[in-house]
Write a structure and sequence with these properties.
globular; 24% helix; binds S-adenosyl-L-homocysteine; 462 residues; alpha/beta
């Protein structure tokens, strides 16, 4: 077939027959795939080709001829420009179907597994204002005005924003107050190009059950003048239930938002929240799931898949502040957690102690170093009954998986935020003695393309 039929700047009429991993619509013109941002499966569109590669291309919507039955008007006026939500223009049922299909497709295509049972996706009850954590970049616009908001998709241009529809509404007030603090004190936002300027990001967290509020300013300096700190405290006292104000030091030329050092400005360097009956202290540097309501469902599912009797040795790898570990501890004999961020590991230990949990132990370090090292030292006697892994998007290191299978757990419960790396690791495990029994997607991030999955793998020879 001649694939050169479609050229840059062509205007073509298309029907959207699928969706890509970034939430974009896909159309086929004589077998040639066009990826179209903001297009919905079922749309009939006129599009303009903006890039034509050999086997596929990209196009932009010129006109909607007939809208898909799943197309809706986004609630947020800047949904199209902002890089945060990719699916606000698609109704929620279709979003769930899209995520479920994405996970299933990865498991079947990348994982090569077709006989595992996929349970129906667990959706959210509250579609907006569900996030408990936000990181807002601070910058200046071309006229020199301070802007606080969000990065436009694939850029570092800050789009000014006064409310984010997926975040807790308390952020509106925090942004207003901190922006006034910056403008009225004539503080310069950080400039990525020159490396000058003080304030880089405003990071916030809100306790779901406790409603405690944390504000952390990421600054490009070692500290901030006491008079400025006092003014900041004064202004933020107007935010209900503010419990923690801090500075995070980040003087590096990097896209990583937070540096390692924290300075307390007001209150504790943490807020407290509950998941189920367990109380957690959360510091600015620690990972904590962003949608607490769905997190409870996610952990309940992990617990259900682990199906503990009370006499098991459990390992919880990539444990963060010990959330899953402590959830599992009451049902197990002993839980060992491993986490790479020292501050999070400290939080995990504190969280065990404030909940009077004495059968959980935490180690700091990369799981792929700590677990193989401990296994070597035990001369192969270190075993596990159940292993839970909850890695970041890049998935598990093969060195870790290699040791895990030697520890011969009966079950591996894999909690994943990236279906592609999940499928890769599940494939490795199924080639090395484990069978994927069932899996279930849980939506933690409505309006975005992200999805969590819990999978149960069982040792084959049992
Ligand atoms: N299970 C926790 C955290 C999951 S997020 C929860 O649900 O809250 C993934 C965690 O893995 C983060 O806390 C991150 O700091 C940690 N991490 C990233 N790379 C790691 C590695 N190589 N070894 C151990 N932990 C790692």
């Amino acid at each position: 077939m001649d694939n050169c039929m479609v050229k840059k700047n062509d205007i073509v009429e298309v029907y959207i027959d699928g969706m890509g991993s970034e939430g974009e619509g896909i159309a086929h013109v004589d077998g040639y795939a066009l990826f179209i941002k903001d297009a919905v499966e079922g749309d009939k569109l006129v599009v303009k080709v903006i890039k034509a590669k050999k086997n596929y291309g990209y196009a932009r919507i010129e006109k909607v001829l007939e809208a898909s039955k799943d197309r809706v008007e986004p609630v947020c006026p800047i949904a199209r420009q902002c890089g945060g939500c990719q699916l606000q223009h698609i109704n929620y049922d279709k979003q769930l179907k899209y995520k479920e299909d994405k996970v299933k497709d990865c498991i079947e295509r990348i994982g090569g597994i077709k006989d595992a049972y996929m349970e129906p996706i667990m959706g959210m009850d509250k579609l907006y204002n569900y996030r408990n954590k936000a990181q807002f970049p601070v910058s200046v616009d071309k006229d020199g005005n301070v802007v606080v908001g969000f990065y436009a998709k694939r850029t570092h241009n800050v789009i000014p924003m006064s409310t984010c529809y997926i975040n807790d509404r308390i952020n509106d007030k925090i942004l207003e107050v901190v922006k006034a603090f910056i403008v009225e004190n004539n503080i310069k936002p950080y400039n990525e190009k020159t490396g000058k300027g003080l304030i880089r990001h405003i990071v916030t967290r809100i306790g779901y059950h406790t409603k405690e509020v944390m504000v952390c300013l990421v600054i490009n300096a070692d500290d901030m003048k006491q008079s400025l700190k006092d003014d900041l405290i004064n202004r933020l006292m107007g935010v209900p239930n503010i419990k923690s104000i801090s500075l995070n030091i980040n003087k590096e030329d990097t896209n990583v938002i937070m540096g390692n050092k924290l300075i307390s400005v007001y209150g504790n360097l943490y807020i407290t929240d509950y998941l189920g009956k367990i109380k957690f202290r959360i510091s600015p540097l620690s990972f904590y799931q962003v949608n607490p309501r769905q997190t409870e469902k996610l952990y309940d599912l992990a617990l259900e898949y682990a199906d503990l009797m009370g006499n098991e040795i459990v390992w919880d790898l990539y444990c963060g502040i010990g959330t899953i570990s402590l959830y599992l501890a009451s049902k197990a004999k002993k839980v060992y957690g491993v986490e790479i961020v020292p501050q999070a590991t400290e939080d995990a230990k504190t969280n065990a102690s404030i909940n009077d949990i004495d059968n959980a132990e935490f180690y700091v370090g990369a799981a792929e170093d700590v677990v193989p090292d401990m296994y070597e030292k035990s001369k192969g006697s270190m075993k596990a009954d159940v292993v839970v892994v909850d890695p970041p998007r890049k998935g598990c290191d093969e060195k870790l998986l290699n040791t895990l299978v030697k520890m011969e757990p009966r079950k591996i419960v894999y909690v994943s935020c990236d279906p592609a790396t999940l499928a890769r690791d599940v494939k490795w495990l199924s080639d090395n003695g484990y069978k994927l029994v069932k899996y279930r997607a849980v939506d933690q991030f409505g309006m975005t393309t992200h999805v969590e999955t819990v999978s149960l793998l069982q040792k084959k020879d049992m």
